[in-house]
């Protein structure tokens, strides 16, 4: 497991200052190879001792060892000129897929497919860009004949979570795992007996505590958060996998084809 995986998997165990260090690495990891522990502590607003503890918590012997691992892990991003843009975007997406592929639990995919098939109603919670991903998931499942709703309004989320039942499936999407509206609504859904699923980047995040099935996807911000590139790509990759497994079912595949024909012939 490389250093960025270690940081992502351990993120929920970090203290506030340790999370500041993790966030700095996530955004400016390439700068650390040329900075001293004193200067880094000053820039982040912490102490050298905290940085050393952080390094040891993620399996490094020292700050220097952490710098070496980060340097070995960093992939050079092509220059963003007319030619480099195409290579940079390809490299970004390719790295997100490769890292997400290593994190996704195949058994969890089979479990969620089983729950989707037997649910009376499916509700997908997400705000912001996660809400847009929820809409995409809703459209796919609708075309397979499922009763599914995507909810991105915080008030509607709370209302819906208070009336779900044990026959329903609730899916919460939050890359950070700490989106309060989604966390609260998933907790309420679980209290009401609904089967709950979380999709996040951090294993020990709040949203995971209220999930029967947990999916961990790679956080694209660990690769590059400075450019306007889709931060939901790792979740979309997971959605593609779930969709493909569902469509192995002949009945669901036939329903999908019916909706395709209906659109073509309309």
Structural features, described:
- The protein has 266 residues and is an alpha/beta fold.
- The protein has two domains: 3-73, Winged helix-like DNA-binding domain superfamily/Winged helix DNA-binding domain (Arc Repressor Mutant, subunit A, Orthogonal Bundle); 106-265, 3-Layer(aba) Sandwich (Rossmann fold).
- 55% of the residues lie in helices and 9% in strands.
- The chain has helices at residues 3-10, 16-28, 37-44, 48-57, 63-73, 84-103, 106-118, 129-142, 154-161, 180-191, 233-246, 250-265, and strands at residues 121-125, 148-151, 168-173, 195-200, 213-216.
- It has a five-stranded parallel β-sheet with strand order 2-1-3-4-5, with helices on both faces.
- Helix 9 (154-161) runs parallel beside helix 10.
- The longest helix is centred in the middle third of the chain and has 20 residues, at 84-103.
